[in-house]
Amino acid sequence: MKKHVLRAIRADNPWLTGEDPGSWMSRFLPARYISRKLRLQADGYICLVVGPRQAGKSTLIWHTLAGMKEPVLLLNCEEMAIREWLRSPAGFLADLRELNILPGALLFEEIQWLPEAAFFLKGVADRRPPFAVYATGSSSFDLASKTRESLAGRARRHLLLPLSLAELKAVATGSSGAEQPGRHQLLERTAVFGGYPQVVSATEPERELAGLVEALVVRDASDRFRIRHLAAFRRLLELMASQAGNLCNFSEWSSITGISNETVAEYARLVEECHLVRLVRPFVGGKRAAFKSTPKVYFVDNGIRNLLFGGLAPLDQRGDRGLLIENLVFSELLKVINPLLDGLHFWRSKSGAEVDFVINHHGRLLACEVKAGTVRQRLSRSARSFIDTYRPERFLVVHAGEPGDSSAGATRIRFLDVFDLGQEVEDFLGC
Fold first, then answer.
1. Quick check: 199 and 305 in contact, CB under 8 A?
2. Contact 159, 139 (CB under 8 A)
3. CA dist., res. 334 & res. 338, Å (int)
4. Residue 194 backbone class (left: φ over 0; alpha: ψ -120 to 50; beta: rest)
5. Alpha carbon 271 to its chain's center
6. Which of 141, 262, 271, 281 has the most crowded Cβ, counting Cβ within 10 A?
7. Packing angle between helix 321-334 and helix 421-429, nearest 10 degrees?
8. Cα–Cα distance measured from residue 278 to residue 291, given in angstroms and rounded to the nearest whole number
9. Which domains does the chain have, with CATH numbers?
10. What pairs with residue 173 in β-bridges?
11. What's the chain's average pLDDT?
């Protein structure tokens, strides 16, 4: 093994040169850890955790491994020397044996930096190493298409997004022992600042959000993805933020940014793969027709959207309050469903009737209408039109008022607030 590679390994794993493994591992655990609903278990599979930058992927893994007696071997794939080493799975495992490195678990950080990440992990898994293997990836750009083929039966893939309202609500007290804000205050803060862990914990959330956006635009876009038109890329992000909740107009975006329609579509795909936005397609009863139809754009996190466009003014002082509640509901739905198994759509009829969100779970339908304020507990014309046409199992109306239950034929109807939305959808999905 080359000396500079060995130096890189030892620099990230000081327990190899005598430091206490427990003390070293404790550095990766924050003083205030907000528990996540996602539970990780390697159980003979590679545990792959993907999601946006700084959503807490590494923290979740370190928290999972905190009780291990054996040390964890950390390999940061952003490090050039580590990438140089991780070319052959067989050679890599042979080097570990020769160096007598016997960890309790192996953690590949930012695995997408490897040129053939999926095939490398496949090679490691096929050789059945005597330790658990975990990997993180900030973008599924390099992993999405290949891991599903290469890692079938070898890995469990988990998507970790920013904190949900349920996770935030479960935090009873802060590190200072002070009581956390009530539901109303928590909703207003999350609708404006979002749910990234470091933003939630920050005394200056604006600065944390600015750092996240710059990490995407400057570091990922220019360094990782070699985007040639960086100013146009940033302008496209701002346009998406200004039109969140609306149909995508690629031609208009092309005209404003000065790049081709094809480049706009490629950049939009990249932003989606980085888990910043989702292009939500209409529910039209056929996959091919849905794929060809114009999608809407929503942001995975409200805070990122607001920093790019709209600002960070309090919710009760904003003209886009309705949009922010709608985008927050979208984010909550996204954190509950399995994107590989469940379709998340919107619905719009030829006559103009519209329902905000439709979940298609193996042919079973749940629809959701979002109201920023309090509404009387009766269905809108659009809701009735959808129910009459598609007979969903459940129809939810998310609003700020009192809960209520009713039915329309075989469809169960529930009026509820956004804090109860996640559990209701989990019940529907059988989670």
1. no
2. no
3. 8
4. left
5. 12
6. 271
7. 30
8. 14
9. 3-160 (3.40.50.300), 172-429 (no CATH)
10. 179
11. 90
Strands across the sheet containing 411-416: 342-348, 354-361, 364-370, 394-398, 411-416, 404-408
> For 237-295, what is the HEC assignment?
HHHHHHCCCCECCHHHHHHHHCCCHHHHHHHHHHHHHCCCEEEECECCCCHHHHHHCCC
pLDDT value of residue 290: 47
For the purposes of burial, counting CB atoms within 10 Å of the CB of 408, is it exposed (0-12), middle (13-18) or buried (19 or more)? middle
Q: Where are the beta strands (DSSP E) in 120-273?
A: 132-137, 155-159
What percent of the chain stands above pLDDT 70?
93
One-character DSSP codes across 373-416: S---SS--HHHHHHHHHH--SEEEEE-SS--EEEEETTEEEEEE
The answer on pLDDT for 331 being more than 50 is: yes
Q: Which residues pair with 72 in a beta bridge?
A: 105
Give the whole-angstrom CA distance, residue 332 versus residue 359: 13
CA distance 355 to 367: 7
CB 49, CB 160: distance < 8 Å: yes
Q: Give residue-wise pLDDT tens across range 372-423.
A: 998 888 999 999 999 999 999 999 999 999 999 999 999 999 999 999 999 9
Q: For the chain, count helices (H), then strands (E).
A: 19, 13
- Residue 107's DSSP bridge partners are 74, 134
Residue 64's CB is within 10 A of a number of other CB atoms, namely: 20
In sequence order, what are the residues at sequence separation of 6 or more whose Cβ sits closer than 8 angstroms to the Cβ of residue 164? 37, 195, 331, 332, 335, 336, 422
Distance between CA atoms of residues 326 and 316, nearest Å = 15
Lowest-confidence range among 58-72, 119-133, 162-176?
162-176
The tokens describing 168, both together, are 């935030």
The radius of gyration of the chain's CA atoms, rounded to the nearest angstrom, is 23
Other CB atoms within 10 A of residue 104 CB: 15
CA atoms of 26 and 66, how far apart (whole Å): 8
CB 300 within 8 A of CB 337: no
Residue the block writes with tokens 């009026």:
415
| Distances in whole angstroms, Cα of residue 317 to Cα of each of 227, 242, 326 | 37, 17, 17
**Of 225, 311, 229, 226, which Cα lies nearest the Cα of 272?**
225
In 3-state terms the chain splits into helix, strand, coil percentages (rounded to 5) of 45, 20, 40
